[in-house]
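To assess whether the prediction recovers the assembly geometry, we first specified each molecular entity separately, as shown.
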Amino acid sequence: MSNREDLENWIARSALGSRSDFEKLYNATSAKLFGICLRILNNRSEAEEALQETYIKVWNSSSKFTAGQASPISWLAAIARNSSIDYYRRKKPEAGDISEAEMIADEAPSPEANALLSDDVGRLNVCMAELDDRHADALKNVYLSGWTYVEAAEKLDIPLNTAKTWIRRGLISLRDCLNR
Amino acid sequence: MSALDKDKSWLAAEYALGVSEGESRRRAERLVERDIDFRKSVDAWQNQLSPILEEVEAVSPPTKVWHEIEKSIAPMEVNRVAEPSDSGFWKMITAFTSTVAVACLGGLLYISGGDFTSGTVSGLKQKLEVSQANIASANTAFEEARQRSNALEAELADAVAGLEIAQAELEQTTGSLEEANLKVADARAEVESLKQAFQSTRPLVASLTQSGDAPAFVAQYDPLKKALLIKTALEDTDEKVPEIWLIPAQGERKGEVLSLGVMDEKAPDEVKITDDFVKLIGEGGTLAITMEPAGGSPTGVATGPVIALGKLQAF
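The predicted structure of the complete assembly is given in tokenized form:
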């Protein structure tokens, strides 16, 4: 079972052009990333394409990965998610930008000084449990499926403003909790 | 790390979450590349959210995906400047990062991953990163130029083909145009001859009078019999006979005074019209009658007085 250090090593060596290390990285992480793509795209052949794009991006940007900043798996997952979301959004016409008009009086969360936080599943679950069920639910769905606010509103059958409020409140509560 | 403004802060959160779309999303993508603080904020959010992915089921992708990936990544085994003994080199790097990480938890100022205290290590890593980036972008630029060149070549081929087709079409059209012109000319000629034929077959009448008196002659031209029938109330005089003259209104002999013949005992009512004159008799033509000595005018032109004059009209 590969650990964080292994992943970091393989990424760093891929940055130097080592195909064998890149392959090891692929073997260790592709199943998880493929699952992530499938969850967003719900289509096997599209997920395969998105996965391909993902790893090409990983190879090309491996030198940009800085060990100690982002955890390797969340870095990889983010590339996979972004590739899948981009692929998904390319297919359909955009709903257009939602104007950033003030709907919540809340202050935006202050950026985290200690950027290094562990991907501690337990901690997240605890914090998610503290959230209002609807907020937590909306947040999870949006994250896993790559929905836009408009889609969230449609699929959860709520008004757009409500979708936005729930998700933003969810983000704020989550951050506050994780920062304790 | 400086604080992001509120706008950017939400943008970072939403980008990491995946909800941002359209212009916002593109803006976030640009900022991630250029704004180090923005990038760190996005990374922080991603770190916090990624445990949600724990529940995502891992699915093995088909092997063809790996083959496609292999093909796409440019083969470049860059010579390692420092050959690591085992992974000692890299262990050193990660050891540094762990140290840095520990320092951060105390709430101290964040040190970016590249800021190692050891000069040689950081310098080396940076050099390698720079050359990697240069090679990658050179490859990309070359590939782009090659593709652009291919695209232009294809466009040129298309344009040449298009030109050839247009030329062929033009030739065809020009050919047809000439043909069409000929056909039109033919048709026009036919119309003309038909017109003439038509005109020469129309029955005509003329009331021949002298200066407004009651008609002394009524002439009828029968195109089928090719004869001019003339009814007259004129008394015969001893030696003079009426000669009929035609002055055509159109055609080759327009305005000329042509003799159609005389009316005498042999032809008291009728003047036979020869084929030559059939063509010339038409609507608007003038008929005139003069009194000539027996046998008609000796000179070929009218000598006697004009006793009647009239225009031919369609019957």
